[in-house]
Amino acid sequence: MGVYVNPGNQGFREMLRSDYVDKTGMIALINETLETTRKLTCVSRPRRFGKTFAAKMLCAYYDYTCDSRSLFDSLEIAKSSDYLTFLNKYMVIYIDISGFTSMLRVENGSIENLLPTIQESIRKELLQTYPYLDESEPLPACMLRCVKEEDRKIVFIIDEWDAPIRESTDTSIHSAYLDLLRSWFKNSNLTPKVIAAAYMTGILPIRKDGSQSAISDFIEYPILYPDGYASYTGFTESDVRLLCDSFGCDFTAAKKWYDGYHFSGCESIYNPFSVMQAMHNRTFRSYWQKTSAAESLTAYINLDFDGLQDVTARLIAGEAIEVDADGFENDFTSFKNRDDVLTLLVHLGYLSYDEGSQTVRIPNLEVEMEFKKLLKSNSKNDNWVRLITQSRKLLEDTLSGDETAVAAGIDRVRCSEYAPTYYNDEQALRYVVKFAYIAGLDQYTRLEELPSGRGIADVVFLPKKHSALPALIVELKWNKSADGAIAQIKNRNYPAVLMDYGGEIILAGINYDEKRKQHKCKIERINR
Q1: Which residue from 61, 193, 351, 455 could staple onto 360, CB 3.0 to 4.6 Å apart?
Q2: How many domains in the chain?
Q3: In this structure, how many other beta carbons lie within 10 angstroms of the beta carbon of residue 438?
Q4: Domain containing residue 472: CATH number
Q5: How distant, in Å, are the alpha carbons of 231, 392, 448, 495, 499 from that of 452?
Q6: Rg (CA), the chain
Q7: What φ, ψ does residue 360 adopt, rounded to 5°?
Q8: Same domain, yes or no, for 386 and 429?
Q9: What is the phi/psi pair of residue 420, to 5°?
Q10: Rounded to whole angstroms, how far apart are CA atoms 367 and 286?
Q11: Domain enclosing residue 27, as ranges
């Protein structure tokens, strides 16, 4: 069993000894491409979304030096008609590129040595594995000789393919690295003779060369458009339901914390690492902060391209933002506008992307907590500081029952750049109210259109465990009255939503009079 050459099935065997969620159906997709013009596949997804698990699974399936039938016979891939046709039939070269970059850092080596280190490591292991090879021959010649002597081609599996792109700002290294990949996978003297298939995975899609992929023969399935690989991008909702049943955990809580990635023709996708942590710990919390990409979310937002901080306020308030993802150059440095930064945040998992509407949003409570940290951070953006300051004042006025000040505060947000362009219905008022109370998200969990009693409460702010603040129920009206909003809260028993809450509840009715261009507010307090 080698490190880079024919690594065997031990990695996958260890996965099966854990609480393995069957993703072997993905193998059938790769089998369809073997030794065809579609044999080069790149699947990119955020960190902690199972990339390395998939790579180890493929190693175990294709490596001819081991017998993996007992590992796969009970799994989904065994139902495929070509399951045995390709099982353990190929040489495998497996490379974890991030392992090489980490090794160079530990040894105080330069990343400029990355490419020769990768090539020489593979070549040396080929020489050890196949003694008939000539030590003087370069890596391509060694691969050609192995394929001829063993009468079987190579399946390349490359994990964290984009590590050099992410970890170095030196574009000359990027170019040299891409040239290396081209020499393996876009070389008419080598690729058709040696490569049965290649599977690359990382966070970023392949870097662009102009407007096209720098390695154009690869078929890409990025997190933006995973297509047939969508259900293998993370855990599906069905997966999570089964896990919750198995571990005795609350599925509704799991959905709130870790759901939020949606793709056409596929169930909701969940963050697999966080789900498994929650299952084993029997606790739903944010595991993102301990495992997210090393890049700072705050640093990206503070770039403030085209008012990016203002857009972030809209995202935190729950709005979906239109994004043009096509201009992103698939690296961490070539930002031209806010769309590029938002697209990067999709690849990092901080935002989810809806292909139909071409919008992004914060996917779930776990990631929302990371964004909320921005509310506490110091910012040089005047609009951002003004919004947070006004929002804190509005919350204080609401809690103190100052109806006039609350109406004036809502008016100020309505007249700011955070309001919808068309302020013409109750939904527009809802957006304004969410922005207006954005500073309260540190103390409250915001729930919208929550069924309660005999109706649906518009917006409920439920105090977090550490908060001493009262609960807040907000009812919105358009061209009616604030008193009518309060009456509706009472008549429809909206406080029933806080049945298990034992503290004070503030009821706030907010109405907008379209003719007078004026907000009115009515506030009452009740105790449970």
Answers
A1: 351
A2: 4
A3: 26
A4: 3.40.1350
A5: 34, 28, 11, 7, 10
A6: 27
A7: -120, 155
A8: yes
A9: -60, 150
A10: 8
A11: 10-222
Please tell me whether residues 71 and 218 are part of one structural domain.
Answer: yes
* φ/ψ bin of 20: left (φ > 0), alpha (ψ from -120 to 50), beta (otherwise): beta
Contacts of 114 (CB under 8 A, 6+ apart): 100, 101, 104, 164, 173, 177
Q: Are 479 and 512 in contact (CB under 8 A)?
A: yes
Same domain, 359 and 394: no
DSSP string, 431-452: HHHHHHTGGGGGTEEEEEEEEE
What are the tokens at 198? Answer: 């290649």
CB 85 within 8 A of CB 103: no
Contact 325, 224 (CB under 8 A): yes
* Partners of 43 in the β-ladder: 201, 221
Q: Is 213 in a helix, a strand, or coil?
A: strand
- Statement to judge: residues 249 and 268 lie in one domain: yes
Q: Which strands form 195-202's sheet, in the order they lie side by side?
A: 91-96, 154-159, 195-202, 40-44, 219-221
Tell me the pLDDT band of 109, cut-offs 50, 70 and 90: low
Shared domain for 107 and 172, answered yes or no, is yes
User: How far, in whole angstroms, is CA 5 from its chain's centroid?
Assistant: 31
Where is average pLDDT lowest: 14-28, 146-160, 484-498? 484-498
Max Cα distance, the chain (Å): 89
In a domain, 290, yes or no: no
Higher pLDDT, 425 or 379: 425
Are 292 and 370 in contact by the 8 Å Cβ rule? The answer is: yes
